[in-house]
Amino acid sequence: MELNRRTVIAGAAAAGIAAAAAGTGTAQAAGGTGSTRGGGRPVKTLFGRLADGTKVHSWSLENGGTRMRVLSYGGIVQSLEVPDRRGRYANVSLGFDTLEEYVASSPYFGALIGRYGNRIDKGRFTLDGTAYQLSVNDGENSLHGGAQGFDKRVWDVEPFTRGSDVGLYLHHTSVDGEMGYPGTLRTKVAYTLTRDGDWRIDYEATTDKATVVNLTSHVYWNLAGESSGSVHDHELSIAASRYTPVDSGLIPTGELAKVAGTPFDFRRAKPIGRDIRTAHQQVLYGQGFDHNWALDKGVTARPEHAATLRDPSSGRTLRIATNEPGLQFYSGNFLDGTLVGTGGRVYRQGDGLCLETQHFPDSPNQPSFPSTVLRPGETYRTTTIHSFGS
Ligand code: BGC
């Protein structure tokens, strides 16, 4: 049974949560306000400097029992802490301790992704009769916006408090032609922690020329705590009867295949590890799960339920709601034991997983997929809400 989150926080506070909160190295550091309920103004500290001297800041915010640290570099969620069923906090998001590691070798840990989440075939598409060639950075394809995507930009960050919400506005203007994309894209992302401890992301963008856009967030979740090992015993459900199969380069074939009778059937919650070693061609292509699920609800005016993740050992749960039509479930297949996380331990394959709400990969080349075209005068708006429980 899922307990009411506010009840848990109140109960934990009564049981003396201050001691429990020291559970991870970053737990104390992230608590900017000193209270477990939070709600204070976000706190800014210097995190590091890029090679050209540009300052990168870290912002700590806390509300409703959820604590997070966000970097101006890439809009990266460096840590996100939530309590388990006994009120013990852990950082449930994979990341690094230093800016140098993010710059040198991050597989998009915690980052904002743009202009286009996931792959575009050979980095090419045609819009209104004009052919565009994007930056190619994944074999012959363009991945997550190209070589210098939004994950590698320093965003302008502005804190806010609004009613019982606490948050950050992140702004980035991507110039016409950046990474091959047409149009100057003005992007504003709001990260909000609500009084219930939900983390809400609101994306907005406008353009001065017709373009394509597909923004998402690339947090790697491990609800048992980052550095605690594999997520294969986490249980996942995805509200999708179909997914988009891919070719060997992970580009969708254009088919919307039924999940029924395949390892891709997460309509009822099941452990991630249950079918991950099934010798299914699609699992082989992804070296695990690395696919877009076509959510049954499709594009919706308001965020609707997409997926639920649960760690049976800690009791922590994450529910995701979005108005996007797709969800990329990536089971951390390319983590290979070469990166050391914030907990001082090595990340290996399957030590974290991503649930990226999005339009479908390669939509600019797939006329049957929901459109990702944005035109002057229109405003791109999408919202994803992460709700935590235990
Ligand atoms: C993609 C993976 C890719 C990973 C990068 C995911 O969104 O689907 O194929 O390797 O991002 O870390």
Automatic annotation (TrEMBL):
Pathway: Carbohydrate metabolism; hexose metabolism
GO molecular function: isomerase activity; oxidoreductase activity
Reactions that this protein is recorded to catalyse: alpha-D-glucose = beta-D-glucose
SUPFAM superfamilies: Galactose mutarotase-like
Key words, A-Z: Carbohydrate metabolism, Isomerase, Oxidoreductase, Signal
Leader sequence residues: 1-29
Enzyme Commission number: 5.1.3.3
Matching Pfam families: Aldose_epim
Family affiliation: Belongs to the aldose epimerase family.
Protein name: Aldose 1-epimerase
Species per Swiss-Prot/TrEMBL record: Streptomyces fimbriatus
Lineage: Bacteria, Bacillati, Actinomycetota, Actinomycetes, Kitasatosporales
